[in-house]
Amino acid sequence: MLPPETLELILLDLARGDLVAILTVSSHLHHVAARVLYRALIDIPPQRALRLVQTLSRNDVYPPLVRRFDLEWTENILTANFLRLLRRTLQRLTNLTYLGLEFSTNDNAANLAWILQNCPFSLRIFTTSMRCEPLLARFLETQHAVVEICLRGFNPVHTFPLPPHALPRLAHFRTVLSSPHVTADFVRGRPIETVSMSLYPGDATASLDALRLSTRPLRRLTVMSFDVGSPAALITEISTRLPTLEALHAVVLVHHSTHDLLVETAPSLSHFTALRYLTFIAPGVHSSENESEIATLWGRACPTLRTIILPKGIVWGSVDGRWVSLQDMS
């Protein structure tokens, strides 16, 4: 009989359906296959997810094996009975380190964080569509090992009662529809180095100001802008606030970029002192020749740049002092 570690490496290459079949072969294979099958519970269809939650709520062997649990429930009706069942299951996942909970927009209007109270696990990554409300803050206050949080839900609230001592290791923060106040409450006084966020008309400046509240210089920023300002204005707002960025990925969805607008953006890049990777995507018609000129201008304005991706999606790189298409080189 092969050692369990070797069997586990072999079983890692099998599909989930094959692993389920192996559970019934022998007690030895059942133990190894269960470790592989239950370690990461992701991409599970709703009907199977319901059966899975039921199994975990009453089984004593499988819950301690779960390290990651992603529940996608956005297209299904959320009932009180299911929430109670889910809470019982979460109470049993003692070794969980990655939790993802996605519910529908209508369901997220309610306070759902009560299902997380007194859970025994210590997370490193937490992603959810739940709205930011006091019970969620109380849960996060207990999660001292979290390094990454993603808020996918709509959070228009003005304040989030997150105590200053909560989330002491939070380094990566992603949000889709949070107000600048909520963003500030998460960033303030924490060692955040990576942020992904959306910028909306009227809130862009306040949202970017919130990023300066981190105890560490921000290294990587991804923004999806719905603002109507020009690309030059957006880059200026970012570069003057966060000059030590190493990577910036900006997607502008409202303002069409033209060759002249991209040329006008070049001076705003001069504020960056350490920027190495820049992606700028916006609607508009461009040619490779025009982008070559833009890459050269931007590289001249920001000498630390090493790669640039412009709206056509071509990767431009600095090679021997010249900006060339890395696609052509390959």
Question: How would you describe what is shown here?
Answer:
By secondary structure, this protein is of the alpha/beta class. It has twelve helices and 13 strands. It has helices at residues 4-11, 16-22, 27-39, 46-58, 80-90, 134-140, 180-187, 204-210, 231-241, 259-265, 288-301, 326-329; strands spanning 40-41, 68-73, 98-103, 125-128, 148-155, 172-178, 194-199, 220-225, 247-252, 277-281, 307-309, 315-319, 322-325. The chain has a 13-stranded mixed beta sheet with strand order 1-2-3-4-5-6-7-8-9-10-11-12-13. Helix 1 crosses helix 3 (27-39) and helix 7 (180-187) packs parallel to helix 8 (204-210). The relative contact order is 0.06. The mean pLDDT is 89.
Outline:
The protein is α/β, with parallel strands linked by helices and 330 residues long.
How are the strands ordered across the major sheet?
1-2-3-4-5-6-7-8-9-10-11-12-13
The computed structural class is alpha/beta
Number of helices: 12
State the major sheet: 13 strands, mixed
In total, how many beta strands? 13
Q: Identify the overall geometry.
A: globular
Mean pLDDT: 89
- In percent, how helical is the residue content? 25-40%
Fraction in beta strands:
15-25%
| Poorly predicted sequence stretches spanning 5 or more consecutive residues | none
Q: Measured on Cα atoms, how large is the radius of gyration?
A: 23 Å
Please provide the ordered H/E string of secondary-structure elements.
HHHEHEHEEHEEHEHEHEHEHEEEH
Distance between the termini: 47 Å
